[in-house]
């Protein structure tokens, strides 16, 4: 059902809203427009921000919801400019409390519009803008799949979706939702084709920088497969990504020594880069080892002797490697590690593991059949004896 917050006709609602805003000192007459409800709404929306100066959030929300109730009763093809103007007004509400109010109002407008209405995209874009101001983005965005479901009956144009994903990426990064931001950026880069991948240079570089800077992102290999990222091959930013994907700590140090200014121009912190590269290098070393001595770790990762144990603890906290530290023997016993890259060798290894598991299950099944057969024979023999 459409939300109606004042049990009046559209004409009466327009007069009441005009009177209310007039009482707040807004430049609007109390008389209804002879041009009809759309002109009334145009003038009401033009001064609706006058209520932001009032201190009663509940009253403000009620008034703004009344405007929503009028908007959704006007045919969409005649209400497009009104919806845009109203959405833009609400994004300018000052302060946290008013931000929460306008977020609820605009979210209600979004939910009230027909799911086949193209204006839902524009309202949602403004919803995200407000949500970012009040740190409530997760209230309106769960994940990429849920976002697509919101627009399944009226998908935005490709350029519109790119604009929205770009905004979501920025907002999620600002709210420290780095993992989700990375998924949004990958989705954004996936909207480019081979033909227009060259247009995504800025997005691709932003994606790489965000992934490298994020202390919780370690699986970087998938980025290399994205068309816009592949378009950057031969450039320094792509070379740097390749170092983080498959090279070891000395390779990064060599790159940094030759391109210090470039690394800093990207906004990357060298010390944080070193920390991440040490973790990635350790993962790579752990892939082929069941144990590793403190001396090896110290040498390979260029650590001081008193830094080794703290580093191992940091590794275990990431859960990238499952291991046990033996301080007495000055060793680390490794049980498993996440692969830095997942190419053909890793798929082959996974295939072998699954095949071995299948064989073991078949052996268990045959063993169970034998046990059941023996029990049945014993039961039959017991019957004969009795």
In short:
This protein is 65% helix and 4% strand. The chain is mainly alpha-helical. The protein is extended and about 95 Å long.
Verbal overview:
This protein has 386 residues and is mainly α. Among the domains are: 1-109, no CATH class; 154-246; 355-385. 65% of the residues lie in helices and 4% in strands. It contains 19 helices and three strands. The protein has helices at 10-23, 37-47, 57-71, 76-91, 96-112, 119-133, 137-140, 144-150, 158-174, 178-189, 201-213, 227-230, 236-246, 249-258, 260-265, 270-287, 294-300, 308-318, 344-385, and strands at 291-293, 321-326, 331-337. Strand 2 and strand 3 (331-337) form a beta hairpin. The model is unreliable at 1-5 (pLDDT under 50).
The end-to-end distance, rounded to whole angstroms, is: 76 Å
**Largest sheet, if any?**
3 strands, antiparallel
Work out the helicity level: 55-70%
Instruction: Write out the strand line-up for the largest beta sheet, numbering strands in chain order.
Output: 1-3-2
Share of β-strand residues: under 5%
Subunit structure: Component of the eukaryotic translation initiation factor 3 (eIF-3) complex.
GO biological process, one term: formation of cytoplasmic translation initiation complex
Protein name: Eukaryotic translation initiation factor 3 subunit M
GO molecular function, one term: translation initiation factor activity
């Amino acid at each position: 059902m459409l939300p109606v917050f004042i049990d009046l006709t559209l004409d009466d609602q327009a007069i009441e809203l005009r009177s209310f805003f007039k009482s707040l000192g807004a430049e609007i007459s109390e008389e209804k427009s002879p041009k009809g409800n759309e002109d009334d709404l145009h003038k009401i929306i033009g001064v609706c921000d006058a209520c932001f100066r009032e201190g009663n959030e509940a009253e403000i929300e009620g008034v703004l919801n009344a405007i929503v109730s009028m908007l959704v009763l006007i045919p969409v093809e005649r209400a497009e400019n009104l919806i845009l103007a109203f959405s833009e007004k609400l994004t300018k509400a000052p302060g946290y409390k008013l931000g929460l109010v306008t977020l609820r109002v605009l979210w209600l407008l979004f939910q009230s519009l027909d799911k086949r209405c193209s204006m839902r995209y524009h309202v949602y874009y403004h919803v995200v803008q407000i949500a970012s101001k009040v740190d409530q983005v997760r209230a309106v965005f769960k994940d990429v799949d849920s976002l697509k479901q919101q627009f399944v009956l009226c998908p935005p144009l490709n350029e519109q979706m790119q604009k929205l994903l770009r905004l979501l990426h920025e907002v999620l990064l600002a709210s420290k939702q780095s993992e989700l931001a990375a998924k949004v950026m990958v989705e954004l880069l996936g909207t480019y084709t081979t033909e227009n991948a060259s247009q995504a240079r800025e997005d691709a570089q932003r994606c790489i920088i965000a992934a490298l800077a994020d202390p919780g992102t370690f699986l970087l290999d998938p980025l290399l497969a994205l068309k816009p990222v592949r378009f950057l091959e031969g450039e320094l930013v792509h070379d740097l990504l390749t170092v983080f994907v498959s090279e070891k700590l000395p390779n990064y140090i060599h790159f940094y020594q030759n391109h210090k200014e470039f690394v800093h121009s990207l906004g990357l912190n060298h010390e944080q880069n070193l920390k991440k590269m040490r973790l990635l290098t350790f993962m790579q070393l752990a892939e082929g080892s069941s144990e590793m001595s403190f001396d090896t770790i110290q040498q390979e990762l260029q650590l001081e002797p008193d830094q080794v144990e703290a580093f191992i603890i940091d590794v275990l906290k990431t859960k990238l490697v499952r291991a046990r530290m033996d301080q007495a023997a000055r060793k680390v016993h490794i049980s498993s590690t996440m692969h830095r890259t997942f190419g053909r060798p890793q798929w082959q290894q996974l295939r072998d593991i699954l095949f071995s598991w299948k064989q073991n299950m078949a052996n268990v099944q045959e063993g169970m059949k034998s046990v059941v057969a023996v029990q049945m024979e014993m039961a039959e023999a017991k019957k004969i004896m009795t």
